[in-house]
From TrEMBL:
GO terms for biological process: division septum assembly; sporulation resulting in formation of a cellular spore. The keyword Transmembrane does not apply. One of its GO terms (cellular component) is cell septum. This is SsgA family sporulation/cell division regulator. Belongs to the SsgA family. Keywords: Cell cycle, Cell division, Septation, Sporulation. It is found in: Cell septum. The lineage of its organism: Bacteria, Bacillati, Actinomycetota, Actinomycetes, Kitasatosporales. The keyword DNA-binding does not apply.
Amino acid sequence: MTDTVQAEVIMSFLVSEELAFRIPVELYFDRADPYAVSFTFDLPGDVPVTWAFSRELLLDGLSKPSGEGDVRIEPSSSEHLSDVFISLQVADERALFRAGAPPLVAFLDRTDRLVPIGEEEVCDTLDSTLDRILSEAQKAG
């Protein structure tokens, strides 16, 4: 059984109202970090850029405007599931992408089969690390 889910989706990088580039974007999910998904954007003439954000944010953004801060996702239409806008912002710079919803839904479905949304568990190594830190703090104090 695999511990990861990967997919490649073609998205439109919306530079302006008149200019858009179709780019490949690699979607990635790892069972070891079940709350997150990452998107690696292969922008023309630039090095690939990876953004990681909440899997739940991606799911919510398919049906309603979602996200605060640097990542915002919203459907292009409230009537039916067609396209999704993904907005990424760093300081005053913003990049806007448009993706078809069906491949994102298929990706999320595959992640949900690996680790169901709402059934993510905190990693055992995190629990053991916290226990070790707390016991060391008690011994020192």
